[in-house]
Amino acid sequence: MIEQLTTLLWTMTKITMIVLPVTIGVAYFTYFERKVLGYMHSRRGPNRIGPLGLLQPFADVFKMLFKEVIVPTNANKFLFLLAPLLSLAPALAAWAVVPFDDWLVLADIDAGLLMILALTSLGVYGILLGGWASNSKYALLGGLRAAAQTVSYEIAMGFALVGVIVLSGTLNLTAIVEAQAGNIFTWYWLPLLPLFVIYFVSGVAETNRAPFDVAEGESEIVAGFHVEYSGAGFAVFFLAEYANMILVSAIAALLFMGGWLSPFAGIPVVGETILGEGGVHWFLLKTVVFCFLFLWFRATFPRYRYDQIMRLGWKVFIPITIVWIMVAGVFRVMGWFGG
Amino acid sequence: MPIIEIIFYLFSTVLVLSALSVITVGNAIHAVLFLILSFFSAACIWILLQAEFLAITLVLVYVGAVMVLFLFVVMMLDINVTSAKEGFARYLPAGVLVSLAMAVQLFLVIWTRGMETVPMPAAEGEDYSHTSAIGELLYSEYLYAFEIAAVLLLVAIIAAISLTHRRRPETKYQDPSRQVRVKREERLRIIKMKSEGEEG
Fold first, then answer.
1. pLDDT of residue A322
2. How far apart are the CA of B1 and the nearest CA of chain A, in angstroms?
3. Which pLDDT does position A339 carry in this prediction?
């Protein structure tokens, strides 16, 4: 019994050590987003609270928490309050199987990739229920749009991951990264280039980010599914969205960019110095680069029209992924990559 | 292992109660949500049996995809609760008959298996992969059943598409390839004119 209790406590400690940095990461991701967008628009972004505006995220969080929680008339109160949590819980739970280094992972389970896919597919319930329970037309339309979009892009995303599974021959995330070891050209971004692009674009669509953010298209449906939320509920929805963005970036770094492996490994002179060694820092660096791409997209592209989104998902991405899975199979049989 | 048993009874209670609620609650959305909860609890029980691949697949396919579409459709329908309850007495005999038949079937299956308790599967070592074990079984011993199931699913997909795919001349839609091909000259006309300031 004592042994089980210590295991439980130790696991809880490890969970805290993952969830806390993720939450702080989310807080500073919002700051990063506002700064990056600011400079892309030729302005400075937040710079009033703390040095360089660094305390701005905390000011935002406390502002949100002290605001009144308003439940709309005739809303389904229980589901209305449950929905933000339903979107946050899977976004955080998926981090349990993410390996930060070859020894640094909370649950090194056999079907880790499948687990990630299953958990990210659960996040849509929060959006769908939040939209329905609000008893508002705009929220319902936003929720339905989000659900349709997530279901369509999940297929392309899943097929893109099948390519990775074919080359690496495993579902375990640690083993997938280890299968990419070598140099920067043995990482899977090269043999699976179309799948890599499709995975990341589907990730942007899954998290309902610009240019695929019709779920909260403010010019048509005000703010979509979270239009009726105030204070803490609104903050939790945003926490989930940003945690999902960081998760998609992390998975892209793990599956296609060699996770914690160093980009200098395998290069004659530089690769033998400390730069050639893998480590958590490389993983975090790659994740941040992908996070930056999210913001870059938002500052660059105008919003897609709804039918264009559906066409891209079903008629462009899914056929390409199916063809490239077969190409990956040929790579595997010929022994050109992996295996 | 008392903790495993506590977890098992917790999840099975949730499973049975939520499955009951699916047919007893009035609101259709709540019924769908209870169905999702029961799928999820079933997946948790499978994980206790060390069938993590099957459990995660259950969550991925049923909870993550099928039930989202279910919820999607139910949300768009305006279901009247009172009219749904109207035919209760009329359909009661048929319902009882169906549930009796199902109970007999279940009983027969359990009877042929014998009523002995199935032992808990022995815990495998850490490097034992249940995922590859199930893959090897599916592609060797149960290959025919597997392929037949795949063909059945394919037939169902094609049938569903051919049933719903009909030409409807009254619907308007955009042709994206024509939109992409459009040139500036077709949409924009540049007019040369004097600015107003020059005259005065």
1. 92
2. 9
3. 47
Torsion of CA B40, B44, B50, B52, to 10 degrees: 40
Q: Could you give the ipTM of this predicted complex?
A: 0.80
* pTM score, whole prediction: 0.84
Could you give the CA distance from residue B173 to residue B177 in angstroms, rounded to a whole number? 12
Number of helices (H), then strands (E), in chain B: 11, 0
What pLDDT band is residue B79 in, cutting at 50, 70 and 90? Answer: low
Q: Within 10 A of A56 (CB to CB), how many other CB atoms are there? A: 21
**Residue A168 CA from chain centroid, whole number:** 22
H-assigned helices in chain A: 2-40, 56-66, 77-93, 112-122, 124-133, 137-168, 173-179, 193-206, 218-221, 231-256, 280-300, 306-311, 318-334
Within its chain, how far is the Cα of A257 from the centroid?
15
Structure token pair of residue A38: 């600011």
Picking from A286, A234, A225, the residue whose alpha carbon sits closest to that of residue A255 is A286
A208 touches A145 (CB < 8 A): no
Q: Between chains, do A111 and B52 touch, taking CB under 8 Å as contact?
A: yes
Chain B residue at shortest CA distance from A127:
B68
| Cβ-nearest to B56 among A118, A143, A154 | A118
- Other C-beta atoms within 10 Å of B24: how many? 9
Distance to chain B for A214, nearest Cα, Å: 17
Chain A CB contacts of B129 below 8 Å: 110
